[in-house]
Structures are given as C-alpha cells and as structure tokens.
Amino acid sequence: MNTVKCTLKTHDDAILTLRMEIVTQILDFDQMFYSLRNPKAQVRAFVEDSLRGRCAFLDVDEIFKAKQEIADHVRRNIQEDLQPYGILVVAVLTTDISVNSELKVAMTKKEVAKRCLQIAIDEAETQKVKVVKDAEAHAEAHHWAGIGTAKGRKNIIDGVRDSIQEFSDANPEISPQECYDTVLLLQYLQTLAGMHAEIDEDGNKQKFKKKAAQKGGEWEERFDTNTGRAYYWNHRTRKSQWERPQQLDMGINRKLQKKSDSMLHNEKLYLPIGGGSVEHLMADLRAQQQYAAIKMENNSNISVVQV
C-alpha cells in the first residue's frame, strides 16, 4: 500500500491537499524490477498527474461531493499506466481532503449565510401566507355577512307583504294601499321617536355614554369585565347575585305609571308606536280615533301628540 499526498488547485482557485491510499499487487516481479528504477516514485507520479488533471475542472465543494468518483478515475488511469510493468492496482481510497484554516472559515461563513437567507425567505413566505389567508377569511366573512343581510331584508319585505295581503283579505273595505300607507306612517313615527330620544330639552343632541351600572334603590346593576354578564350588587348587605331582583322592576314600573298618569292628566293623546301585526296597529288607530271623537263631543280640550 502506497500513501500519496498531493497539493493541487481547484477550478475556483482554491489550494487543497488530498491524501490517497493506493493498494497494488505485483504480478510480474522481474518485469517490474527491471523496468522501473523506483516503483513507488513512479506510482506517485502517475497518481499526482491523474489527480491534477481531474480536480482542475472541479470546485472545492464539488471535490468533497465527488470523492469516490475521483478515486475511481485515478484507479482507471494508473491501471492503464502500470499494467505494462506487471503491477495491478487493486483499490484507490481517498482518506483525507484538507484545506487551510482561512478557507475553512470562509466556507463556514458562506454556508451560514446561505442558511440564514433561506430562513429569512421561509419566514417571509410564512408571514405572506398568514396575511393572504387572513384577507381571504375577512373577504369570505363579509361575503356571507352580505348574503345574510340580504336574506334578512328579503324576509322582512316578504313578511310585510304577506301581512298586508292577509289583512286586506280579512278586511275588504280597506285597500292594500291604505294598509301600506299606515305601515309607512308607523315607521315614520318610530323614526321620530328615536330622534326625539337623542335630543335633550334644549334641542341639542345628547351624547350617550356606556354605563357600567344601573342603580335602583339599594340594588345596583353591574357588568362583569371578563364575561360582560350582568350581576346585581346590594349596598345594604354588601352581597352580589346573578338573579335580577324584583325591586329594580318595581322601580321601573313606578316610573312608567307616573309617566302614564301625567299623560292622562294633561289629556293628551299619544299615538301607539311599536311592533306587532298590522291588525293590532289598525285596531289601535281606530281606538284612538274613537277616543278622540268622544272627547270632542264632550267639548274636551284634547290635543294629539305624535311621538
């Protein structure tokens, strides 16, 4: 076995050293002895010539990848050269590829930079996919929300139309147009009521703020900051509960009763505003008309207030 170290230059002008082990077998000793003056030096020369001729076309990275290919190339070439001298090349092994320290550092930095670049590209691609998917989900949500809104409006229109048709069939003396005009009037009154609720006594628009609690006597309505659920705090017992106390409802009922008494005392007629079927609305309007006619017959001072 002969050990050969060869210093050579690659295609990208890098200098490195290859160490190869040459396994040979003597087939004809007399022919070798009398033909070659120094067999080891001759084998070394053949190996170096084959290596320099092959590695001159390869870069440093390619030499590390093509280590076995280089060994096979050297074995085939020196076999042809040594066979006439009675020497058989059994195997050629590449045992070491060494470069200087500066080249090792440069190769390491190059690989690190390449991997960092790939990581940055992958992270940017991941962020891009997230942004695209979020935009697609947002657009899809708006799409289905629009479909739901359109269906809801269509159902409202269908319900109004069916209600008007049923009322017109049950009351032939009232035309569908009159019934439709009544519905528009009620919607108009509801709009006025909503506008009136947003205007204070001086005629300025009120600025509504979210209230964290609604007080009613010793009970206070509060809202959980985590869940948003309403709970009720008792200032006297310093305890809270989830169930709504009856005292709050009683206080609201007293306020409504006081307002109703004030309306009756002033003898003002308030037209009904609210939901319900068309039949109920028409019945309320007729009752209010009859009430107004009775008051007028009794020479009562009555005014109709629209809210």
Task: Characterize this entry briefly.
This protein has helices at 29-35, 39-55, 60-65, 67-82, 101-170, 176-197, 246-265, 278-297, and strands at 2-9, 15-26, 87-99, 213-216, 219-223, 230-234, 239-241, 268-270, 303-305. It has 307 residues and is of the alpha+beta class.
Description:
The protein is α+β, with helices and mostly antiparallel strands and 307 residues long. The strands form three sheets. A four-stranded antiparallel β-sheet has the order 4-5-6-7. Strands 1-2-3 form a three-stranded antiparallel β-sheet. It is rod-shaped and about 150 Å long. Helix 2 crosses helix 4. Among the domains are: 98 residues, Tetrahydropterin Synthase, Chain A (2-Layer Sandwich); 69 residues.
| CATH C-level of the domain at 2-99 | Alpha Beta
Q: H/E series, N to C? A: EEHHHHEHHEEEEHEHE
The CATH architecture of the domain at 2-99 can be given as 2-Layer Sandwich
Number of helices: 8
Arithmetic mean pLDDT: 76
Determine the structural class based on helices, strands and strand pairing: alpha+beta
**CATH homolog superfamily of the domain at 2-99:** Band 7 domain
Query: Share of helix among residues?
Result: 55-70%
N- and C-termini, Cα separation: 114 Å
Can you tell me the residue ranges where pLDDT is under 50 for at least 5 consecutive residues? 208-216, 263-277, 300-307
Main-sheet strand order equals: 4-5-6-7
| Strand content bin | 15-25%
